[in-house]
Every structure is written in structure tokens, then in C-alpha cells.
Amino acid sequence: MSVTSEKEKSIPVYILSGFLGSGKTTLLVQLIEHWQQAGLRPAVVMNELGEVNLDGQVVDAEVPMTEMLGGCICCTVRGDLGLQLADLVQEESPDVIVIEATGAANPMEILDAVTETSLYMRLELKSLITVVDAAHLSGLYQEQKGQTFKLMQEQIRCASVLILNKTDRVGEQEISDLQQLLTKWNGFAPVIQAVRCEVDMDLLLQSGDGVHAYQAAAESDHQEAATEHVHTEACSEHGCGHSHEHHHEHHTPHASHEHVMVYTHYFNQPVNSEAFERFIAGLPRDVYRAKGILSFSDTASRFWFQYAYRESDYMKITPQGDVPNVAVFIGEHFDQAVIRHQLLEMESINQA
Ligand SMILES: Nc1nc2c(ncn2[C@@H]2O[C@H](COP(=O)(O)OP(=O)(O)OP(=O)(O)O)[C@@H](O)[C@H]2O)c(=O)[nH]1
């Protein structure tokens, strides 16, 4: 490869990975501030499973942002990533680029797409940062099964640096157990513990700046992930504990998250805030992420709400641009009709 002499001029690229709701956007906002304070011009590629870019609302409107909506960057919209990067570079000449993947993405595929693009553009993949929700991982680790657990494991294995986030939600012992677990799954990546992704940004950006480290981790991950896919499919198809001779190409990223579904609800009427909070608190466990922008019938302001792994959060917001009242629900095999029905009922009560 002939990039060595050009390396100084290449644009650094960071990939933010981590399961749905782990804290990627929280980190993104701080990274942007950090770069802006250093006089740099960052650009963002934002990928969301839903049809609306809600996370974009919390990012400084001045920051150039490419949105890849309605599909996961690692499969359905993967082919576009190279084009989006090329457009961003040509139109905005940023000093640094961050790609925030959907929480359901397998970062290996994004990594492949970025490296492919860097063959013909001056991009340099600096690191793959995976944000881990400490409480969520702890819960899943105790169960030791499920697609979500596997996906989280893949995201951790691919990382060149790990942020063990939401440590406020677990005890001291759990933190130290999780720290050990992360090191066991990925011995290459430094682990930085954090609450709300508040970390020393210089340290974060320097950590894991080792292409060798993440490549080595990623390669072993790829092999293991492929084995796991074979095994899982064999088990579910044949209902037994044996592995059958199924052959899957490496590029079957969907296998790890095709079970993830999204329901987007556009509100026609404002709803009562307390009724909505009760509804969110009572969401089925299979819905593991929800977010949206709402007008309530009993509040003057609009709200940005979030729900991630049994915790919800409401924040007053004045949206940028013309944003509808909308909520996105992401989960595994949940009944969309039930959610829709409950929301419509809330709307109609309020209309009456
Ligand atoms: N308790 C607690 N909550 C946190 C922490 N970090 C982030 N959150 C909250 O977790 C929720 C999800 O955070 P985001 O940064 O939007 O997560 P994300 O990974 O970007 O989510 P997706 O883009 O949907 O995958 C928000 O309500 C955050 O305020 C933390 O350290 N502790």
C-alpha cells in the first residue's frame, strides 16, 4: 500500500460502536466539543435504524452531518458509507470524521467499509471506540445467552478502545468483574471507566491508536463470530445442541442482528405526560431502546425522551428545524401493534 508518504495529510476517522443506548451520542457530543475547542472542524456520519434522525438534534447544528437512516450501516446501507464519506470530504473538508453506528451494528462491517474507502481516499482509521453499558452487560452476562449478548460481545471484541460506561448503575464489585471480563474478551483494548462518557478526551483519542491491536482483535473476532453464526443457526434450525455443517460467508452481518425491529410512531395529538411516563415504564422487556421528541398536553415545552435498559430520561428541548412529534421503539420480536394501539389510545383520550 502506498499511503505512508501521504499519511500526514489523511483525515482521521473514528468509529463509535456500542449497543443501543450505551452512550454513543453522549460521547459524540463531547468529542465534538473537544475538537471544536482545539480549533478543528469535525464532521459526523450518523446512522439510525429509525426513519428520523433524533440523535442529530443534540449535535451542534454547525457540524456537517451525513445521515444514513432507516437501516443499519453494517448491512442495508453499507454500500453507501463509502459514498457518504467521499461526499463529506469533498463538500466539507473536515479535519476529523466520526461515524456513529446504530447500536445494532456489527462494527467489523463498518471497519471493512472504511478501510475499503481509505484505499482511494485519504482517510485514516484511528480507532474503533466501543461504549459498553455496564448494567446491561452485567445483566446479559448473568444470562449468558441471546442475540443481544452475542452482538455486544462482537462489538467489544472489535474495539481498539473500550469505555465501560454507566458505572453509576452498578456496584464496585460488578465494575471490577466487568473490567476483568472486558479484558478477557479483548486483551488489546484499554478500558476506560466512565459515567456519562466523561473521560479524558486526549487519553481516549490516543488510546487504542493502534491499528495492529484492533486488527488482531478483529480477526480473532471475525473467526469466532463466524463459528458462532454456524452454531446458532444450526441449533435453532434443528432444535438440537449439535453443530451442523452449514457454511456461511463471513459477510453475513445480518445474522447477528436481523432480529432487531423498529417501530416509528408519529403522533397526531399531544399526549398526557404522566400517562406517557407510565407507558414507558411499562414497556415490555423486549423493547430495549426508545427515544423521541414529544409535545405533551400538560407541558408548555417540547421534550426529548430516552429509554435505555430500564432507565428513562426526559429533557426539555427546542428542536432544530421542523421536527414532528415522533417516537422510535427498538427491540427484539416485540408486538408493534400493541405499542401502536396504546399510543393511539393515549392520543384519543387526550383529544376527547
Ligand atoms: N445512568 C446513566 N445514564 C447514562 C450514562 N450515559 C448515558 N446515559 C443515558 O443513556 C441514554 C442513552 O444514551 P445515548 O448516548 O443516547 O446512547 P446511544 O448509544 O447513542 O443510543 P443509540 O444511538 O440509540 O444506540 C440517555 O438517556 C443518556 O442520558 C451513564 O453513564 N449513566
TrEMBL record:
It holds the Pfam family cobW. It comes from the Bacteria. Residues 260-347 form the CobW C-terminal domain. It catalyses: GTP + H2O = GDP + phosphate + H(+). SUPFAM superfamilies: Hypothetical protein YjiA, C-terminal domain, P-loop containing nucleoside triphosphate hydrolases. Gene3D superfamilies: CobW-like, C-terminal domain, P-loop containing nucleotide triphosphate hydrolases. Keywords: Chaperone, Hydrolase, Nucleotide-binding. InterPro entries: CobW-likC_sf, CobW-like_C, CobW/HypB/UreG_nucleotide-bd, P-loop_NTPase, Zinc-reg_GTPase_activator. PANTHER family: COBW DOMAIN-CONTAINING PROTEIN (PTHR13748:SF62), COBW-RELATED (PTHR13748). Belongs to the SIMIBI class G3E GTPase family. ZNG1 subfamily. This is CobW family GTP-binding protein.
